[in-house]
Amino acid sequence: MTMWVFGYGSLLWNPGFPVARREVATLDGYARSFCMRSIHHRGTEETPGLVLALDAVEGVQCKGLALAVEAGHEAQTLAELRERELISSAYLERNLAVTLENGESVTAVTYVIDPDHDQYCALSLEEQAGIIATAVGGRGPNTEYLYNTASHLSEIGLDDQDLDWLATRVRAITA
Fold it and tell me: Are strands 4-7 and 105-113 parallel, antiparallel or unpaired?
């Protein structure tokens, strides 16, 4: 049985595991947003950055990629994803149904935000832009994370107006 992972942020451009197949997919009931303070990868505890997370919102959808893990790499992939994504327990690991473009439904390992975690936040786009423009963490500048995600969504034909606005605004702030 194929192991699928749903990518909506950095997994789009940096999955970190061998991918056998990539399919545009839709996840119902979740919105992609910069609702997680990053104290490791794109910020520090003193100066948190922001990373994308899936926030449960009734009636919305998130489009991303369903990534099929190359056969034989499932256990290693899951272990590495847990080390990467569950570093501070702000994400919850879920097996959720996603719908591929051809209409097929698959179950994918998906990381969603824990709204009760202290890293969860609900900020205006302008507040997000101000943080992203300056934050830097262990994996580099927060701007790089935003720009890579926005450009990869565009490359695969997925529109995210908030990310496009943020990329434009952050470029203006950092100019």
Answer: parallel
Task: Give residue 104's Cα distance to chain centre.
Answer: 22
Listed residue (100, 94, 91) closest to 67, CA to CA: 100
Answer left, alpha or beta for residue 29, where phi above 0 means left and psi between -120 and 50 means alpha: left
85 part of the active site:
yes
Residue in 46, 70, 74, 85 annotated catalytic? 85
| Structure token digits, residue 168 | 């434009």
Q: What would the pLDDT profile of 111-134 be if each residue is shown by its tens digit?
A: 999 999 999 999 999 999 999 999
pTM above 0.85, yes or no: yes
Contacts with 1 (C-beta within 8 Å, 6 or more apart), sequence order: none
42: helix, strand or coil: coil
Q: Please, are residues 5 and 79 in contact by the beta-carbon 8 Å criterion?
A: no
**Separation between Cα atoms, residue 173 and residue 129, nearest integer Å:** 8
